[in-house]
Write a structure and sequence with these properties.
Largest sheet of chain A: 6 strands, mixed
Number of helices of chain B: 3
Number of domains of chain B: 1
Largest sheet of chain B: 6 strands, antiparallel
Strand order of the largest sheet of chain B: 1-2-3-9-8-5
CATH superfamily of the largest domain in chain A: Probable tRNA modification gtpase trme, domain 1
Helix content of chain B: 10-25%
Number of strands of chain B: 9
Mean pLDDT of chain A: 97
Number of domains of chain A: 3
Strand content of chain B: 25-35%
CATH superfamily of chain B: RNA polymerase II/Efflux pump adaptor protein, barrel-sandwich hybrid domain
Mean pLDDT of chain B: 94
Shape of chain B: globular
Radius of gyration of chain A: 21 Å
Strand order of the largest sheet of chain A: 11-12-13-10-4-14
CATH topology of the largest domain in chain A: Gyrase A, domain 2
Radius of gyration of chain B: 13 Å
CATH class of chain B: Mainly Beta
Strand content of chain A: 25-35%
CATH topology of chain B: OB fold (Dihydrolipoamide Acetyltransferase, E2P)
Oligomer: heterodimer
Order of helices and strands of chain A: EHEEHEEHEEEHEEHEEEHEHHEEEEEE
């Protein structure tokens, strides 16, 4: 089957992107080079085509109440125009996907409108899960995954570069806020969210608008970035990657996402019993941040050793471009998860020293 | 993008090149411009020690970029005479001059005829689709 192409496919090729197949889409993995793109986002601004991500709109009575049953976060905290990062859970407390929930309709509206942005690779799985669990509720799910372009502009200069092209005063849009507005004089939607650890925006427009916006932002100095830099940026910020750091077998508590689990504030939801038991009895494993003492990079799947025994596994690892240090995320037993704990990662058969460190590895100043 | 593949070198389909000095039986081993481009930003090299023995087609080290780690395979059997210490210190410079300052190791080859199996520049070019 031929790969899907986003509305920015040609624009990316014109800018010498190296393309790769990702979740059924042909996506840019890099333009000028991962380190250079990474640095552009940390120092100024980078531009990502994330049109491959899943985009659902849920409309109907009681959308938030219905979603409350599917996630461990208290979505009643959401005010209109705000968003919540959360996870869909299976009955075993495992993560079906991580996603952002955007409340679009006013408080108390008889018909609520909620947008969800989910991972590309899990779009179909999520849709099946949502349709099954919203059946009979009168809630309508529209899948706009292939009908809308989504561009992410990230970095300390993102707001300054974007402002001339949008009607909304960006200084009024806080972190995790979102709003419909005019983008290049046409209807569009902006959210102050991202996956890099920097300030930034995710901008949804009609496919026909995408190339114009991409070119306007690159002309203004935003550096086109691919999936390679997206991965090193999110890993420095210690943000989980679905399918790698989190999946159907990992709970949000194990994954260090306890901050989005609001047990006392809400009623029953799928997976609740498992999370309650993990809170009460403790967990078998926890996701920790590691730095390596030498230059060896701990990569996905490498064993983690504690007192000589293999006790865990690296889920993500790279050389952190900003820190110039090998960093990794790994699952280890709680006894080995304390900050400062010395462990070893087996790199191609050789144990190499590693230390458990605080996450994130990098925090924007 | 078209890369340079000197006619005087021999190539492996795993992207190593070998330069021979017939008089001395010494083989200089590196990786091609194509491989360096494919790997992206190279951040780490693991090379054998001087005096180590290498076997033809066996792993002798690793090259690691931000996104991937690849094994290095030896085109010949022999003993390591030298390794590029400057490049180990600054692996990101490998792409500046892959067939010159970007060399990895020099090997005293047991049998230079082992390179008869290796690819010519034209054959390698066909292999990588250039």
């Amino acid at each position: 089957m031929a790969s899907l192409q986003t509305p920015l496919y040609s624009a990316c090729l014109d800018q010498s992107a190296r393309m790769t197949e990702f979740a059924g889409w042909s996506m840019p993995v890099q333009f000028g080079g991962i380190k250079q793109e990474h640095q552009a986002v940390r120092e100024r601004a980078g531009l990502f085509d994330i049109s491959h991500m899943g985009k659902f709109t849920l409309t109907g009575p009681g959308v938030i109440a219905a979603l409350q049953r599917l996630v461990p976060s208290n979505l009643e905290r959401l005010a209109p125009g705000l968003a919540q990062y959360t996870v869909l859970l299976n009955p075993q407390g495992g993560i079906i996907d991580d996603l952002i929930v955007y409340l679009k309709s006013p408080l108390g509206a008889a018909v609520e409108t909620v947008a969800l942005i989910v991972n590309a690779a899990t779009t179909d799985k999520d849709k099946i899960w949502l349709v099954e669990h919203l059946a009979g509720s009168g809630i309508d799910l529209v899948d706009e995954s292939r009908d809308r372009a989504l561009i992410s502009l990230q970095g300390p200069a993102a707001a300054a570069l974007l402002q001339p092209h949008v009607a909304l005063d960006l200084s009024t849009l806080g972190r995790f806020a979102h709003q419909d507005t005019q983008v290049l004089g046409q209807p569009g939607w902006l959210a102050r969210t991202g996956y890099t650890g920097e300030d930034g925006f995710e901008i949804m427009v009609a496919p026909a608008m995408a190339e114009g916006l991409w070119q306007a932002l690159t002309a203004a100095g935003a550096v086109p970035c691919g999936l390679g830099a997206r991965d090193t940026l999110r890993l420095e910020a210690a943000m989980a990657l679905y399918g790698q750091d989190i999946d159907d077998t990992t709970s949000p508590l194990e994954a260090g996402l306890g901050w989005l689990v609001h047990l006392p504030e809400k009623g029953d939801f799928i997976g609740r019993a498992v999370l309650e038991a993990q809170k009460a009895d403790g967990m078998q494993r926890r996701l920790v941040g590691l730095t390596m003492a030498g230059r060896h990079i701990a990569r996905h799947g490498y064993p983690v050793l504690y007192q000589g025994d293999a006790v865990g596994t690296v889920t993500s690892g790279t050389l952190a471009p900003t820190l110039n240090l090998p960093i990794a995320l790994a699952y280890v037993p709680p006894a080995a998860a304390k900050i400062g704990q010395t462990l070893e990662v087996e790199v191609r058969g050789e144990p190499r020293p590693a230390t458990v460190v605080k996450r994130p590895f990098y925090r924007a100043s | 993008m078209a890369f340079e593949y000197p006619e005087t070198l021999k190539y492996l389909d795993s992207h190593e090149y070998a330069r021979t000095d017939e008089d001395e039986g010494i083989v200089t081993i590196g990786i091609t411009a194509f491989a360096i481009d494919q790997l992206g930003d190279i951040v780490f090299l693991e090379l054998p020690e001087i005096g180590d023995s290498l076997e033809k087609s066996e792993k002798f080290g690793t090259v690691e970029s931000v996104k991937a780690v690849e094994e290095l395979k030896s085109p010949v059997t022999g003993e390591v005479l030298e390794r590029n210490e400057a490049l180990i210190e600054a692996p990101e410079q490998i792409g500046d001059d892959p067939y010159g300052d970007g060399w990895l190791i020099k090997v005293k080859a047991t049998d230079l005829d082992e390179l008869d199996d290796a690819l010519t520049a034209d054959e390698y070019k066909d292999q990588v689709g250039e």
